[in-house]
Write a structure and sequence with these properties.
There is one protein chain. The protein has one domain: TIM Barrel (Alpha-Beta Barrel). Strands 7-6-5-4-3-2-1-8 form an 8-stranded parallel sheet. The protein has 9 helices and 8 strands. The chain is 40% helix and 17% strand. Bound molecules: pyridoxal-5'-phosphate.
Length: 228
């Protein structure tokens, strides 16, 4: 009940943000971030209606991936920093990697994908705000990276992701979200992102409404759904 109520409230806030931006609610996918909770709570979230779930560490995700049967139809999203030697544990098990943040990781994913004969859906993480603590490519590095990444047949590039600085006032991070959207539009128009790779993963519990107003297609929501 608790999760159903929280999910309903979240969807209502998303609907309002979409309405303000003149967007269709179907354009925004909620990725429920389950890193704070265990298997049972994760199952309750699924029962409440969520099918897209996000984890930022393979060790924390693994017990849930094992305990939750295929029939539940969960799409797992890898959203955290991915060590190169863990890439093999993620590809084929997660339906989207949001956090491709360096060339060496892209190369490793590509290599492993080719071995398995699959393509791996990925988003490119961009450090729009320029904070030292944030991972991702600097905007000016993207053209060079994407030129190499487009030649990697094991990568299925779907769009961009960013993390905004933590803030009490989401309005202050609007330029970060707008910046990611503008980068996507520019890179798509110039062919550095393949046609149709227009996903934008941006916005968390504290700032998702602003992210949606600026074009988010995935919001990664933990605390407001699962924290006590
Ligand atoms: C934990 C986490 C989130 C969710 O954050 P909340 O503020 O709890 O909603 C989103 N994205 C990433 C990459 C995370 O690690």
């Amino acid at each position: 009940m608790e999760y159903e109520k929280r999910l309903a409230e979240l969807k209502e806030r998303i609907a309002q943000a979409c309405a303000r931006a003149g967007r269709d609610q179907d354009e925004v996918t909620i990725v429920g971030v389950t890193k704070y909770v265990g298997v049972e709570e994760t199952k309750s979230l699924i029962e409440a209606g969520l099918r897209d779930l996000g984890e930022n560490r393979i060790a924390v995700a693994a017990p849930k991936l094992e305990a939750i049967p295929e029939e539940f139809g969960v799409r797992w999203h890898f959203i955290g920093h991915l060590q190169t030697n863990k890439a093999k544990d993620v590809i084929g098990r997660f339906s989207l990697i949001h956090s491709v943040d360096r060339l060496s990781l892209a190369k490793e994913i590509n290599k492993r994908a080719e071995v398995q004969g699959i393509t791996v859906p990925c988003l490119v993480q961009v450090n729009v705000s320029g904070e030292d603590s944030k991972g991702g490519f600097a905007p000016e590095e993207l053209i060079g990276f994407l030129t190499e990444a487009q030649a990697m047949k094991g990568l299925d590039l779907r769009g961009l992701m960013t993390m905004a600085p933590a803030t009490d006032d989401a309005e202050t991070v609007r330029p970060v979200f707008r910046g990611l959207r503008e980068l996507r539009d520019n890179l798509l128009a110039r062919g550095y992102l393949p046609a149709g790779s227009n996903e934008l993963s941006m916005g968390m519990s504290g700032d998702f409404e602003v992210a949606i107003e600026e074009g988010a297609t995935f919001v990664r929501i933990g605390s407001v759904l699962v924290k006590p």
